[in-house]
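Why does residue order matter? Because the sequence determines the fold. Keep that principle in mind as you read this record.
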Amino acid sequence: MAVAVSGCSGDTSADTAATSSAAPADTVGAMATAAPRDSDLVGVRIPLGETKKVPIPAGAIMEITVPAEWGAAVDSVRCTVTDSSGRNEDLRSSEPKKQEKIAGKPWVTLWTFSSPPATEVTVGCQDADNAVTDAQLRYVRVVPRGLHPN
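Structure:
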């Protein structure tokens, strides 16, 4: 196991850190307790109030999910999904909202939709009431699920 350290040319602490050794158990323990990065999560992250193109994989049902920390704010959010011709896709929801853990955090599925494979759709969600007050939680994630056999 190797550790890379960078520093400024006048910084002698970088030389000391580079030659120091750490027990592999400490490194493994630190990695195991680290929170998952957003880039580790599957799907496309879309901030509220913005739109993004989302690729549709073959045979997938798509889900629009949000952090469970939203609580009752899930009821104030509205999303639209449009195909390349500008046609709105049908969003389906189920009550109660499905909850699951993704990368160790609880998420809630608001809607599902399906589109032809190997295409792109544009997804956008609005929080007109500003019910989601935590700036770090003001986004949705569009995730492919339920892959069907060919």
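The two ends are 42 Å apart (CA to CA).
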